[in-house]
Amino acid sequence: MRVLLSILACAAWVAADPAPETVGENVTLPRGTYRLEKPIRVTADGITIDLRAARFVGGTGDASKFSGIGLILEGRRNVTVRGGRFSGFRCAVLVKDCQGVVLEEIDASGNFRQRLSSTPDREASSDWLWPHKNDQQQWRKNYGAGICLENTAGAKVRRCRGRGQQNGLILDRCTGAEVYDNDFSFNSGWGIALWRSSKNVLTHNRCDWCVRGYSHGVYARGQDSAGFLVFEQCSDNVFLKNSATHSGDGFFLYAGNETLKRTGKGGCNGNVVKNNDFSHAVANAIEATFSKGNKFIGNRCDDSNYGVWAGYSYDTVIEGNQFAHNSIAGVAIEHGENNRIVYNTFTGNARGVHLWWDDDKELLASVFGKNHGCDSRGYLIALNSFDGDRVGVQLDRTTGVKILGNDFESVRTVVRATGSALVVRDDDAAPDVPGTKDETEFPGELDAFLPRGHPRGRRHIRVDEWGPLDPLAYAVFPRNASGWGAVSFHVLGPDEIYTVRTDAALRVKKDGRLFRITGGEPGITPFEATVTAGGKTFKVSGHLVNTFWKVRHWNWQADPRKARWQPAGVEFETKSLDFAWGQGGPKGLRPERFATRATTTLTLPAGRYEIVTVSDDGVRVFIDGKKVQDDWTWHAPKENRTVVTLKRGAHEIVVEHFELDGLARLKFDLRPLP
């Protein structure tokens, strides 16, 4: 009774006093907002705690500084927590060493997330996640979560919500959990993450737009974000009718370092992944590696780099899935053995199926490699439909392959085989390949899939310094939209009725949700645009630069870091230096070992200016013949900033760049400083 009375005393909408530190009996909290300085601890078994009218707040402001836990259940049995809104914590709800806990209708949104250093122009390697260690709860401690279950059996997590943070739900060493009808979308890390967790059922969950490390048309890395993360000895789980689209990976399964580096045994084995939508992933719709006996059935895997990447997988079933418009391959497996690829549809992929062996010395010499043959062999590719793929099946140094009863329509190259591949092909046969059936009933009733007409495609992934933006929530991206010749920004929201006002001397052109601002005098024109959408007002600020660059591109023979700089080759003019070549290069040149020299003359008022370059590889900048920025090195996409003071008048600017290999990028900007 004393606990209940102390709770009632805190029943103001904005509580001046912290909420009670313990709950030891059945209780319904009255309506209120409670500021928590310490976590609430549950101290009894078999009770029900109704928090549906309560809101709990930890920190406010900078989400990367949130700390603490909102609610802790430790060592408890058969406790039900119903409702409650938790925000501003490192981990909102922690369940540890428990059995039979039920969490339902909890909103654990707006908790910890890292501030990202990547920008629309360049990736920051510091944003990569590191999911390979968690035996000391590094995931929760370093990355936070809305809800985290540790060493817990028989839990139910249903109709909960965790959005706008880094991670939705963590299952750490859990068994027998049922996770269904939840929404863990729009997070910058993982929607649902499993570590050493087996025999769990996860159905009808939304984990869309769990992504970082992406800028459309500039870089596509994902940085180990995922809708579902399944790491380190997670076996015999069921993933059914979930949606994890527009994520780093839709479904990311990895056997773990115990298998790969310590024992060579075990893995994330025997999982059933059925009737999910993992489309529009930055990297892979499904990644599943170093594991045995997994079944991927009836999933949608469209518009990613790979539909399925399953390196070093064996005894795997890939059946009845849809693979459409994947930029590298529908199914790609290196060093795989005894895998079955049947009844799938492949449409418009660069390659439908690609299987290969290569001399992967480090992995073949690993503990895993020594415990497994690691050949590429023993495949059945049967009763699949290929339509419009550039290559249907590509085999490199792969043996024991049966290609039976497939249908190839408008496929440029039906089968391409190199090395020691052995192909048995009989397109007219109708082999007896029984389908995989699983009639077991599982909980959940939410239709988790994106509705018809919802924005789809990787072009709808936009990530700011806090994570992914919801394309149906009103926002402007980017908010600082400086540009050369034109400034572009998108207005997000559920409709296309927007008002944009800016300086009368500038012109605004609308193309759907994309706006372009042009005009102004030669030189630099600062601007601020006011955007009205959905009853909200947004500001877009920056500057517009009008000039012409004279650009030369050429391939080089001698290393430009050592040889004399000799610009020659194709010349053209452009209004901006913003080249996102990716793995390619300038038109008509080899995609590697090329150089660029660009010059312009710009009339500027006196003042301080910041020179910003994004380059891969080397870059250097000269103003009026003086070198003001120099990073003449081989490096990943990198941002350099230099501040210079210039006199009023015309200034000659020269930008030089070389590309050695890999990704290629060059962007130049010059910004006035206050």
Secondary structure blueprint with pairings:
Blueprint: H1 2-8, E1 22-23, E2 27-28, E3 32-35, E4 40-42, E5 48-50, E6 54-57, E7 69-74, E8 80-82, E9 85-87, E10 91-96, E11 102-104, H2 138-143, E12 145-150, E13 156-158, E14 167-172, E15 178-180, E16 190-195, E17 201-203, E18 214-215, E19 219-220, E20 226-231, E21 238-240, E22 249-254, H3 257-263, E23 272-274, E24 284-289, E25 295-297, E26 306-309, E27 317-319, E28 322-324, E29 329-334, E30 340-342, E31 345-347, E32 351-356, H4 361-364, H5 367-371, E33 377-382, E34 385-387, E35 391-396, E36 399-404, E37 407-409, E38 413-418, E39 423-426, E40 463-464, E41 467-468, E42 475-477, E43 483-484, E44 487-492, E45 498-501, E46 506-511, E47 514-519, E48 523-533, E49 536-546, E50 549-555, E51 570-574, E52 578-582, E53 594-604, E54 607-616, E55 618-623, E56 626-631, E57 638-646, E58 649-659, E59 664-672
Parallel strand pairs: 1-4, 2-5, 3-6, 4-7, 5-8, 6-9, 7-10, 8-11, 10-12, 11-13, 12-14, 13-15, 14-16, 15-17, 16-20, 17-21, 20-22, 21-23, 22-24, 23-25, 24-26, 25-27, 26-29, 27-30, 28-31, 29-32, 30-33, 31-34, 32-35, 33-36, 34-37, 35-38, 36-39, 43-49
Antiparallel strand pairs: 18-19, 40-41, 42-44, 44-47, 45-48, 46-47, 48-49, 50-51, 50-53, 52-59, 53-58, 54-57, 54-59, 55-56, 55-58
